Amino acid sequence: MHKPWMVWLTVSLTAGVMLLAACGGGSNDRTKAKLRLVNASSGYSALDLRVDDTLTQGAVPYGHTASYVEVSPGDADSAIAVAGSATALLSFTPTLSKDRYYTLLAYGGQGALKQVQLDDNVGEPDTGRALLRVVNAAPDAGAVDIYLTGSDEPLASAVPLQSAAAVGAVGDWLTVNAATWRLRITAAGNKADLRIDLPALALPSRQIATLVITPGRGGVLVNTLLLVQQGSITAGASPQARVRLAAGVADGGAVAARVGSTVLATNVGSPAVDVYTLLPAGTVPVVVSVNGQAVLMPDAALLAGADYTLLVRGPLDAAQATWIEDDNTLPANANQAKLRLVHGVADFSAAIAMTADFVPVADGVSPGTASTHRLVNATTTASLSVTGSGRSTPLFGAVDQHLEAGANYTVFVVGPAASAVGILRKDR
User: What is the mean pLDDT of the chain?
Assistant: First the structure.
């Protein structure tokens, strides 16, 4: 039904880390609970689990687990730490019962680690059916809708298996037909905002599994982990990236751009910043022209799950195109906004800088690059000023700008220095 190159990759586990329940080895003390750690945090490459001050599972990589360990339900004070560190990132006491199986799912970004406890003791469904529950462990993605469909079923007519799956919430068990499904996840209530499209999610007869949604590289797209109850883990990496065009050529130059087989623009006048387009990740050819004149571009290596801006800038007769990877993770403080600066000024080779309400936000930004994001206070009256090294007057200034709490913004400064244009764009 589906092509063999499906993007689901089964995590290889050696005999030493195979689950006790799956391989039948080890002791089976029925007075103890069985506990395992699953690392679903892309912010930490490896995590340790300590129970009752004893290292029980060490250096568990992202997307992996280790064997269940036996734990006394009454002595289960637990801590999760960076592998090899004695400093706990989280301390908690799980609620355990004897002779039962549990998963501790660690998720969240660096400095914001959380955990949720999963009960791994559900009875098998009928033959021909499978049980599936959803855990949204992608804080930057927000609430999402989950669709299981046939391979060719249009998303427009599909009904979500689960709607508005909230971050950190454990969904109810859902009974589905055993089959190989196409999995699509969108922003809650918005089918046009596709976060992942995996052609083949296999749910065999009588399987019991938890679908864990994990963060993609750019913060908007997502990955997945399929946790079989008391069994293996299968990782589903996003096969897509998001790309947008920023046309900033001097003198209103018209920009055309194609990335792989996807046309971003056929004749967009500068200045303009388009919305993101979803397209396959990987190494793809790039074709760019300005007023019909080709701009030399090498192939692009688009990383799965990442967001990019293709910036086309410079004078009409010497336009250049550069790639900028975009960080669209949400602000660490939901009461603030993220703000950065992109240097696209056509005839200004020196660095530029920016202030917001006279507080420095970016400096030393070279042509064709972006500054890192800075957290700024949310406001409806921001005063922005972009200056250039060695210039006596600002390149761009604006007042009464709206910076919304919990949002990401980029200021693009493009065109010739003598008449530079600033574009404040809300990225998400």
Answer: 93
